[in-house]
Each structure stands twice: as C-alpha cells, then as structure tokens.
C-alpha cells in the first residue's frame, strides 16, 4: 500500500473542530439536452460505477497506524458502493443563487467521514430556470488542483451523448493491508531516522528562507538563503522578493466552524482584452481584480492597511521531479494520481495603491518577479516544513500552532488560486455544464477568506469561501470582484475592430 507523504498528512493534521481541509466545487448543469431532460441521483450513481476505475482517488480510504506513530496508509476499497457517497436534495422555492450558496456553505462545513473514501457528491435540484447543481468535495490529502481536475474530467463528456468507456482490461492487484506489527516496525525505523531527515529538510528550507512568510523578515534571511543555495549547488542569485510581512486585517484571526459562500462569473474575453491592452498575463489581471476587490471591501469597513496584503498562490508541480520534493518515503512513485504535488508562491497584493492602472502594473511586476524566482528555484519549503516534526507530534501540534499563529503573527492574509480549465462545453449525464465554481480551504493560519477561480468555456468562474466571523457580507465581496473587472475593461479602452475578410 501507498503511504501518505508528509504534505498529504499535513492536510489531515490541520483539521480541527473549526477547520475542514477538503476542496470542492459547484457545477451548474442545464439538463435540457439530457436524454431524459433531467439529472437524477440514479444516473449519477450509474455514471460513477461505470467510470470509477478512471478516478482511482475515489476508491481509497485511510488506514491509521496504531497510536498515530506514523503517517496513515491508503487502502483500496474493492467493494466500494458509490451510492453511499451520493446524496440528493431539493431547494425550496424560488431556488435562487442565495439559497444555493447557503445550502452549499452548510455542506462545506461538514467533515468527511475518515472511515470511508474521502469524498461526497450532493445533487441539488430546484434551481431557477430548471437548472441542477452538483456539489462535490474531496479531501485535500487525496487530491491537489491537478488531480482534482482529472477526477472531475473522468465524469465529463464532450457531447450530450455519454462516451463509451472500456472497463479495465485486467483487474488491478488487490493491495494488502499491512499488519499492525508491520506498520509499527516501519514507524519505529522512521522515528529513529527522523532527526537526520529533519535536519536535511531544514537545510533545504534554508535555501528558501527569503521566500517564506515571517522567516523572510528575519535579519540576514536573504544572505542565509543565498549561502544555502550556493552550498547545495543551486543558483546563488535570484530576483529579490519584496517584503512578505502580512498586515493586520479583518480576514485574519481564529476562525469558527461556520462558512459563507458566494459565486459569480466574468467573461474571459474581458480578461484577455485587459491583458492585451496592458501587455501583461491573464493571471496578472486576475490577481489585480482580486487586489482591487479586497481594497474596496477593506475601505468600506474602514480597515485598509497602508501596506500590501500578502497572498499565498498555490502552484502545481506535478510534472516536477520527485527527487526535489520533501520526504516521500512510503509513496508509490508509479502512482502519480493520488496526493499532492504542489508548492506555493507568496506574493504581495498592491491593495495600498490608489490608482487602478498603477495597481495593475505593480501587480504585473510583482508576479513577474515571483515567477522568475520560482522558475529559478521552485520553492519546496511547504513540503519540507511538513516533514520537520515526527508524525505523532505533528498531528497533535498543528491545530494549536495554526491557532496561535493567527493570533500572534499571521503569515499571510489569504489564499488566491487561479485554476485553468477547458475552453469548450462539457456535459455530465447528458446535461450541459454551464459553470463550475471552485471552493477551497480556510484555516486559522491562512485566514478566514479564500478566493479561487476556474476558467471554463469562455468564463472565469469565482468561488469565494469565508468564515462569517471574518467576512460576513461575502456577496458584497463577489460584487467588488465584478466591479473591479468592469473598471479595468473601461480603462483598457475599446477592443480592436475585427478585420473583415475580403473576397
């Protein structure tokens, strides 16, 4: 069996009474073109049964090591009944966006049952216009952004007519669950070797010291990082990063178990138009839209700090060499479809800049520097940090450390994520996928606000998740995102006229 990596296990350790660490999304479906004109629970269960082998992450459950002395293992559930994971409900009239968001927020608050494979799907009927919503969540220890998208893609089709899927040619060999004694023996060996591994992890972290929140503010952090990179044979000189000290904001502090959710879309053509007009990337525009919306919300609440907010931007590194990641002992190198292969860029957001044009330009320069730095030396400190403490101690300490950090010195203000998706219509059970609004994790450490967007079929779909103790008016923030995009489109000027073809 495969064992969770240190980073995967960290997503388990971070959970508490107020924190859930699953990723999710809300798919809005139009069943008009479906064969029966509807999307039913029975049809969804049938689709899952037919294609379950295309999404191996959905068949795995955790096997804990006795006394929590080591990271858990994955066990394949051979007799999994997907019906146990699929639920259906109907909204009361009128079935509007606010009702859907409230229902989804309640679902997002709930912890997944760790005795079963860590996923659920909720089919939500009764939306206005005959639409149907599908809320699906998977634990972050199972998937990252890339594998999550691959899992969703296994269920989608390019036409209303579902494609024929061949069953697996040969049944995969059943994985054997190790005996308790075997797991304890491995745990004991790992514990003996842990000090040496922890020292190596700290050494590798030293090379990223000037890119780690809080640590980068320590005197001499850049000199230490340059020396560590030189010793390890890495690049000694990289683009210098701006200060990464997060200011105090209403977003930061201990969170509650409650969640709020809002969602909306902006045309991808508008994002492209602004990017072309100002000669920056699409992601730079998205980050600027978020910075502008955050600035507007903070101004409304008389809480705008005079220094930039600090955001964590997840980066998929699934194609990178496993040799450059943190401790992965126990993981199966041939199974790259489960678990996390991600890093993070820490970047300032120019919420302190008054001019929207200058804010766009500063964001572009900041992101270019962060990308050059990441390309020259991909940050591994997130995985390294997860492997410094022994598993048993990490499981006990993580929630307390997260809560203490939120009170004393928050490392970041929020997480902002932009996930690219397909630019063509897709179908689920014959129903057209109209939009997909992603949802992610809140924690004491990362703050009570998360903004994630997903590009799909000409739109940029935003999902905003917040703790109401930190952001109560989450729909207002969604409105600010749309207003910020409209402002940039106006500043970009008219679109170039389309050239007419001559006969």
UniProtKB/TrEMBL annotation:
It catalyses: an acyl-CoA + a 1,2-diacyl-sn-glycerol = a triacyl-sn-glycerol + CoA. The keyword Lipid biosynthesis applies. It comes from the Bacteria. GO terms for cellular component: plasma membrane. It is an enzyme of class 2 (transferase). Residues 339-488 form the O-acyltransferase WSD1 C-terminal domain. Its EC number is 2.3.1.20. Residues 4-286 form the O-acyltransferase WSD1-like N-terminal domain. It holds the Pfam family WS_DGAT_cat. The keyword Electron transport does not apply. Belongs to the long-chain O-acyltransferase family. This is Diacylglycerol O-acyltransferase. It comes from Streptosporangium carneum.
